[in-house]
Design a protein that fits this description.
Number of strands: 5
Distance between the termini: 41 Å
Shape: elongated
Strand order of the largest sheet: 2-1-3-4-5
Strand content: 5-15%
Order of helices and strands: EHEHEHEHEHHHHH
Radius of gyration: 24 Å
Largest sheet: 5 strands, parallel
Length: 207
Amino acid sequence: MNSPAHEDLTVYIVEDDAGMRDSLSLMLGLLGFRAVTFESAEAFLETYRDNWSGCVVADLRLPGMSGLELQADIRARGKKLPFVIITGHGDVKSARAAFQSEAVDFIEKPFDEAELRVAIEKGFDRESRRIRRTEAVSDQISKLTKLTNREREVLELVGKGLHAKEIAASLDISARTVEVHKARLMAKLEARNVSELVRFALAAEKQ
């Protein structure tokens, strides 16, 4: 059954064969997955939104844009939505292209339920890690916006490995004032130690 950690994720089935499409949707529904179906890559892209999360199960050969071309299109948009490519006409070249575009798996028909489930779970695990990283970065940015200009200056110098006296000399303030700013930084950023302050300093450089 679908893991509780994956309850908010969706399987997007892109398959032109109506019978196969309905069969996959029913199979995945019985396994506890939420599934949405599309008859072509173009139909998927017409509906697609950047905030979609989950895993795409796309047939290699589709009318119009192929499953690989759909995967490439999503990657070109800078999105990391995991793909599982399924096909009745597998070859090394196609499999290589799929994996070069970071496909989770390349599965040849006929495949069994367990094989597809494992591939989707791998895709969901990858997607869950991506979402957690995105949320962590968003949380860092949110905390950094609460800092004053002086606190940002102190944070930047902490990130460069300077000690309190060196920071004080650089900013023409007292070492005691530097320690006060560091204490406020620790509180605002919810940092447990200087190492975590350095991590925030590196994140601030990327803003």
